């Protein structure tokens, strides 16, 4: 059988349009496909929640691919290792309480498990705003990342979501938008974004988990975004807190209402 270019083209268009249309209304919309967002996507999808993850870049995995300073190994503590074990990511003991894992294996395996569990990943799409009605966040406003990068004058589309996770890392992009534009007070000390502090690995890892919360109705902060929103320190290339934070965000959503 000879291959036909038009059939290939139609297959891609039909399948993608169907996927995007199906996921215009979701239970949970996750913004950012780093370790926190991917782990949250996996646990939510596995529990039967209709889950879409939007990632600005072409590649999923956020800051985990590069380990520390592009040395593609990650470090996790005991509790983080349990999450890696759950996903079947191999790890090696370095010394008591410290384990290392191959960053590429970690990202690819967690992403694969999330997608196989039913989460839909939309890469190359940036979240540029939120839908706000009667004082509550109801969804996301999305556009192609190349549109954003080129500064093109193209209107976005919208995704309705019952719950949203901001797992955009240091930039806390969704929460910053909400604080700036939505007249919604975040449940932080200042009511807005507190901003990330200088490095303190041990404290930051604990606080990342503590700061993983519903930060305003229906919106959850996870990963580095949670720590930055609540004014916690950065932790460097230890990733247990990110994995555990994604898991906690999913559990909070699953236990709500
Ligand atoms: C300069 C720099 C310094 C860093 N320093 C530290 C550090 O000291 N300690 C530390 O723990 N981590 C640091 N990191 C990040 C590090 O990789 C994190 O530990 C870890 O990756 C955070 O995981 P996360 O899942 O919270 O977010 P990330 O891995 O950062 O993933 C966030 C993802 O969200 C996507 N995204 C952001 N905004 C949008 C949007 N509007 N729409 C769609 N997608 C979006 C990004 O493309 C990214 O893939 C640093 C990263 C950078 C770039």
SSE pattern, N- to C-terminal: HEHEEHEEHEEEHEHHEEHH
Helix-strand category: alpha/beta
Mean pLDDT: 96
End-to-end C-alpha gap? 53 Å
CATH class: Alpha Beta
CATH architecture: 3-Layer(bba) Sandwich
- The amount of beta strand, in percent, is 15-25%
Task: Let me know the CATH homologous superfamily.
Answer: FAD/NAD(P)-binding domain
Number of strands: 11
Write down the domain tally: 1
Shape: globular
Bound molecules: flavin-adenine dinucleotide
| Number of helical regions | 9
Radius of gyration: 18 Å
CATH fold-level label: FAD/NAD(P)-binding domain
- Low-pLDDT segments, ≥5 res: none
What is the helix fraction of residues, given as a range?
25-40%
User: How would a textbook summarize the main sheet?
Assistant: 8 strands, mixed
Structure description:
The chain has 257 residues and is an alpha/beta fold. The chain has a single domain (31-63, 103-255), classed as FAD/NAD(P)-binding domain. The chain is 40% helix and 25% strand. It contains nine helices and eleven strands. It has helices spanning 5-22, 35-46, 78-87, 103-116, 145-150, 173-181, 201-210, 224-230, 240-255, and strands at 25-31, 51-55, 73-76, 92-95, 98-102, 120-123, 125-133, 136-144, 157-166, 214-216, 219-221. The strands form two sheets. Strands 1, 2, 6, 7, 8, 9, 10 and 11 form an eight-stranded mixed beta sheet that branches. A three-stranded antiparallel beta sheet has the order 3-5-4. β4 (92-95) and β5 form a beta hairpin. α2 packs parallel to α9. The chain is globular and about 55 Å long. The mean pLDDT is 96. It binds flavin-adenine dinucleotide. Flavin-adenine dinucleotide is lined by residues 31-37, 54-57, 62-64, 126-127, 167-171, 173, 199, 223-225, 234-236, 242.
């Amino acid at each position: 059988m000879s291959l036909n270019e038009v059939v290939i083209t139609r297959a891609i268009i039909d399948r993608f349009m169907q996927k995007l249309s199906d996921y215009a209304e979701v239970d949970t919309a996750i913004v950012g496909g780093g370790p926190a967002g991917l782990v949250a996507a996996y646990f939510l999808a596995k529990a039967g929640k209709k889950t879409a993850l939007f990632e600005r870049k072409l590649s999923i995995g956020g800051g985990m691919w590069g380990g520390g300073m592009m040395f593609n190994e990650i470090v996790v503590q005991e509790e983080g290792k349990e999450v890696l074990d759950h996903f079947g990511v191999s790890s090696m003991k370095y010394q008591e309480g410290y384990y290392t894992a191959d960053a590429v294996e970690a990202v690819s395996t967690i992403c694969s498990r999330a997608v196989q569990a039913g989460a839909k990943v939309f890469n190359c799409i940036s979240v540029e705003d939120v839908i706000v009605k009667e004082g509550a966040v109801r969804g996301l406003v999305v556009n192609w990342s190349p549109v954003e990068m080129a500064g093109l004058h193209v209107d976005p589309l919208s995704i309705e979501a019952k719950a949203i996770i901001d797992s955009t890392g240091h930039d806390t992009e969704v929460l910053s938008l909400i604080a700036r534009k939505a007249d919604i007070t975040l449940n932080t000390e200042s009511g807005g974004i507190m901003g990330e502090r200088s490095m303190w690995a041990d404290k930051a890892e604990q606080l990342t988990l503590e700061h993983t919360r519903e930060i305003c109705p229906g919106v959850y902060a996870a990963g580095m975004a949670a720590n930055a929103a609540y004014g916690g320190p950065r932790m460097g290339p230890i990733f247990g807190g990110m994995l555990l934070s994604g898991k906690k965000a999913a559990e909070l959503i699953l236990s709500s209402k």
